[in-house]
Amino acid sequence: MNKTCKIFMGLVLVPLLFGVWSCGDSSKLQDSKPLPLAMDVPNPNRNIKKSKEEVTGKTVPKVEKAKIEFKIADSELDKRLAESPVTDEASCLEKVKPLEVKVHSVQRDGGMWGHIEQADLKEYSPIGMQLDSKVNKMMFSLRYICETAKGKPETDLARYVREGLEEKGEKKFREHLKLLGEAPEDIDKLINFGKFSQEIKNRDIDYSTVHRTILFGELYVNKYDEFAKNLLKENAKNNALPNVMALHDAVTDFIASDEFVAMSLHEDLQSPQKFPGQM
Q1: What ranges do the domains of the chain cover?
Q2: Closest CA to 219 of 68, 30, 72
Q3: Is there a contact between 99 and 136 (Cβ–Cβ < 8 Å)?
């Protein structure tokens, strides 16, 4: 394994040893949550000036993508939906947790990025980095929709905005936020966030429809695990890498087109990162 890969894997493994990846008691495997890989964590101290290569991305040598259709037969889908139905948050999370554990296992060993590096195919590592990030987004979304299908609890910030609008009215509340030093675009985001939070607070999504999304998420996670392992076998460039390329495109389409995954990612982006007046 080259030096770059060792450093990257160290960044992933160290937080795991201290339980960052788990929610609550790290010894309880069933409470595991996906670990954001190092490339997903913004660095506030990074120089914002970027080279042309950083902006456009490194050129990845062309490899013909495998012609794989990631599908579940309708008969199989109906059978699995009926055999073990999802009816509430608990049964929903029971479907998601094993997937989180499997993703954790792959990422503990460096993720798809690390497996590509170990296969001495580092020129293709950007594809692995992107796939790791997209799988993490997918896993975040699956847990999120399980936890919020019957309404998303009001956060402290959402409550602050709601109370400000109720007590002052929108015009005066905007003036109040301006006095706190908030920029006009940040004020718009806060107001929209407050209103949006009220819209989803008491929503009612049928868990049976969420179950279908989870089953397709399971398909992608299983392939993510399988293809990562195959990268460590002989002739990975010709055998495993085309499958990874196909999976990358399939997961990209899934997180953009699936109703609940796309919704979860959209809602996550609506939340401001700080309270008004904070630096």
Answers
A1: 1-17+83-150+204-245
A2: 72
A3: no
pLDDT at 279: 56
Please give the single-letter amino acid code of residue 107.
Q
On the question of pLDDT at 34 being above 90, the answer is no
> What was the pLDDT predicted at 88?
97
Scored b (16 or more CB within 10 A) or e, 77-99 reads eeeeeeeeebeebeebbebbbeb
- How many angstroms separate the CA atoms of 138 and 99, rounded? 11
Whether residue 231 contacts residue 118, with contact meaning beta carbons closer than 8 Å, is answered with yes
Using CA atoms, how far residue 141 sits from 36, 89, 119, 161, 188, in Å, is 13, 14, 30, 25, 25
Confirm if 115 and 228 have CB atoms less than 8 A apart.
Answer: yes
**Rounded mean pLDDT of 59-88?**
91
Element (H, E) at 147: helix 125-148
Contact 160, 100 (CB under 8 A): no
Q: Specify the pLDDT at position 66.
A: 92
Candidates 100, 105, 122, 104; CA nearest to 113 is: 122
Whole-angstrom distance, CA of residue 94 vs CA of residue 79: 18
Helix, strand, coil percent values for the chain (each to nearest 5): 70, 0, 30
Give the SS3 label for residue 22: strand
Alpha-carbon span 35 to 58, nearest angstrom: 25
Q: Give the distance from CA 166 to its chain's centroid.
A: 34
Sign of the Cα pseudo-torsion (28, 33, 37, 42, in order): negative
| pLDDT, position 132 | 97
Per the CB < 8 A criterion, the answer to whether 106 and 228 are in contact is yes
